[in-house]
Write a structure and sequence with these properties.
The chain has about 110 residues and is of the alpha+beta class. It is about 35% helix and about 15% strand. It contains 4 helices and 4 strands, in the order βαβαααββ. The protein has a 4-stranded mixed sheet. β1 (about 1-5), α1 (about 10-20) and β2 form a beta-alpha-beta unit. The longest helix is centred in the first third of the chain and has 12 residues, at about 10-20. The radius of gyration is 14 Å and the shape is globular.
């Protein structure tokens, strides 16, 4: 099973989903703006991605620029912020067999299939 944390309004996310469908993957789609990610799950995803929480933040989002950009924020606080404002989470995230990747560019998803 391949899981994609998906935002249908995002072209990169749609392209990534199309690649998964083309490769005939068994896909579990999570529209994370409709079904928020828990802090525990986000920590797990960050660990699978092998990145720091700040590397998962969409820093060009207005909410980031207006509320958080110039503040000192711990990793724990950052995870809480992303769960409160899921729009800040970079997308799409694809997980398969305990491997994860951010699908930017979408073709990167092929690396974990």
């Amino acid at each position: 099973m391949t899981t994609i944390y998906h935002n249908p309004r995002c072209s990169k996310s749609r392209q990534c989903l199309a690649i998964l469908e083309e490769k005939k993957e068994d896909i579990h789609v999570i529209k994370y703006l409709d079904t928020p990610i828990t802090e525990e799950k986000l920590i797990e995803i960050i660990e699978l991605l092998a990145i720091k929480p700040i590397d998962l933040v969409r820093k060009n989002e207005t909410i980031w620029k207006e509320k958080y950009k110039s503040k000192e924020i711990t990793d724990k606080e950052l995870i809480k912020i992303m769960c409160t404002h899921p729009k800040l989470i970079e997308r799409p995230i694809v997980i398969k067999n305990n491997k994860a990747i951010i699908g930017r560019p979408p073709e990167l998803v092929i690396d974990i299939l």
